[in-house]
Design brief:
Layout: E1 2-8, H1 14-26, E2 34-38, H2 46-49, H3 53-70, E3 76-80, H4 86-99, E4 102-108, H5 112-124, H6 132-141, E5 155-158, H7 170-180, H8 197-228, E6 236-237, E7 246-247, H9 254-274, H10 282-301
Parallel strand pairs: 1-3, 1-4, 2-3, 4-5
Antiparallel strand pairs: 6-7
GO cellular component, one term: elongator holoenzyme complex
Protein name: Protein KTI12 homolog
Subunit structure: Interacts with the elongator complex. Binds to calmodulin in a calcium-dependent manner.
Length: 302
């Protein structure tokens, strides 16, 4: 398992580097499984992703969440995005450390003039390019990786404007060796990150919150199904003195309840990336789910 962060200016050849490295890894002696996580998987064009800071923050949250889910599957994960903010690369490094896996950064070092030219050529071909204002803003805010930073190390540097990047490129081969080399007590040149007490505690807390959320929402669904099964039309499901009732105007089947539950859990996970954390106790989780159901049923009843 490993996490590879592709980094570089807009239109600097990052996607070519990601695909090339993935192919080289798949064809290596170890026949690695590789997954590329990129912006295109979210079906947004380049300009929508970076039109303003909230949109950019939302994109980074989606990428980070996908990386967090993927690093535990045993594959090498390649993050193909700008990854231009050092604080964000640090967050990705923390995910790798929490998972106890290898980590490296591949930097496409291209001067601004070439990036600007390639962006124009891409737009001229009718492909998805950056608007001029967004391109200039991204170039201005780019934070170059530095190998002395632990979240930028080891750092493999490519120069797509000077040389053709293919599976035989020396830097690609070096990265493949680093990511696939067998590690034993004598290995000195490969570093596998070790989880700290803080990252382990954070993982435990998140897992505990998800467990509480899963259990609490299932109890609410069980209560709705049970009260509907008693016979007769009901307009209110009562859940005890501590929780508000759920108002309904029609029978709610189990498939619909399960769909609403899955959507709620997904929304809670996404909102916790940039908003309030997941509830850590059953009562808070139940109250949020009840509020969500009342909004949904209210909208359906309107």
């Amino acid at each position: 398992m490993a996490l590879v962060v592709i980094c570089g200016q807009p239109c600097s050849g990052k996607s070519i580097a990601a695909v090339t490295l993935a192919e080289a890894l798949k064809e290596s002696e170890t026949k690695q499984n590789v997954r590329i996580i990129d912006e295109a998987s979210f079906h947004l064009d380049r300009n929508q992703n970076y039109v303003n800071m909230p949109a950019e923050k939302n994109l980074r949250g989606k990428l980070r969440s996908d990386v967090d889910r993927s690093v535990s599957r045993g594959d090498i994960v390649i993050v193909d995005s700008l990854n231009s903010i050092k604080g964000y690369r640090y967050e990705l490094w923390c995910i790798a450390r929490a998972a106890g896996i290898r980590y490296c950064v591949v930097y496409c070092d291209v001067d601004e003039a070439h990036c600007r030219q390639w962006n124009k050529e891409r737009s001229d071909r009718g492909e998805d390019g950056y608007d001029d204002g967004i391109f200039e803003d991204l170039v201005r805010r780019f934070e170059k990786p530095e190998r002395r930073n632990r979240w930028d190390s080891p750092l493999f540097e490519l120069y797509p404007s000077r040389e053709v990047i293919d599976k035989s490129s020396s830097v690609i081969l070096e990265a493949v060796t680093y990511l696939t080399k067998t590690v034993d007590s004598k290995t000195q040149d490969v570093r596998i990150l070790q989880p700290s007490i803080a990252t382990q505690a954070a993982r435990f807390s998140e897992a505990n919150s998800l467990y509480e959320l899963d259990r609490a929402t299932q109890e609410i669904i069980n209560a709705i199904v049970e009260q509907q099964s008693l016979g007769g039309a009901i307009s209110r499901v009562t859940l005890g003195n501590e929780l508000p009732p759920i108002e309904i105007s029609r029978p709610i089947g189990l498939p619909e309840l399960r769909r609403l539950r899955r959507t709620f859990v997904k929304l809670m996970g996404q909102s916790s990336l940039s908003g309030p954390p997941l509830p850590t106790d059953a009562e808070s989780a139940k109250r949020r789910f009840v509020d969500y159901l009342n909004r949904e049923f209210g909208g359906n009843n309107a």
